[in-house]
Amino acid sequence: MVIGSAIAVAIFAGVLLFLKAGRSIGERAIARFGTVGQTISSLEAAVFALLGLMIAFTFSGALTRFDVRRAQVVQEANAIGTAYLRVDLLPAAAQPKLRDTFRAYVDARIATYRKLPDIKAARDELARSQDLQQQIWDQAVAAVRMPKTRPEAELLLMPALNDMFDITTTRLAATQMHPPGVIYAMLIALALVAALLAGYQSAGEKGYAWIHKIAFATIVALTVYVILDIEYPRLGLVRIDAIDQLLIDLRAGMK
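Request: output the structure for the sequence above.
Response:
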């Protein structure tokens, strides 16, 4: 994910800069007052604790949404499979056309997420699947009204189609559910403030332990990157594409 990588690099550079700036401010304070102050350690601990809390909650929320999105793929595969099986309840003459439309629909659903991160192509496939939903519904309504249709066909097939259509809306909404941008802004701001205070606290130390500073900056940057990657699992390194195999297998079984 290009944006996530850019943010991680900016955080890495920002943390190093604020560490250096904090140390410079601390050195001026020592030159002027002879000390960096007695309360800085407690302030630093409080900010780092708050930073850790923010990271924990943000990471936990992203992971929860990641698991929900995977579960929704399973739900959709089950819903489509159930509806497809219940086509057997319709008269034999109505089944072939409806099954062909089902197969085209599943192809469109698979392509919708396979086309990502090409947003435009994914939206085109989504629009095609929505058009196929209407065709499936119209064909099913016409089929259940045929003279030789069994009474239970409508009672079993139509609710199954509703479930199949509803899960697509649920999955679409899940892709748009993310924390407000202010949460990430606050997380980054806390990281920079923590770096500033840590740099200020190190002003009295001899030398400059670059290895510790670089390690701190790297850990914070990588943590934020991983959170963003999990939050957008179709765009980065952390992906849920493997779970789409359920829909692919379902499509392969639609004879």
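The radius of gyration is 27 Å.
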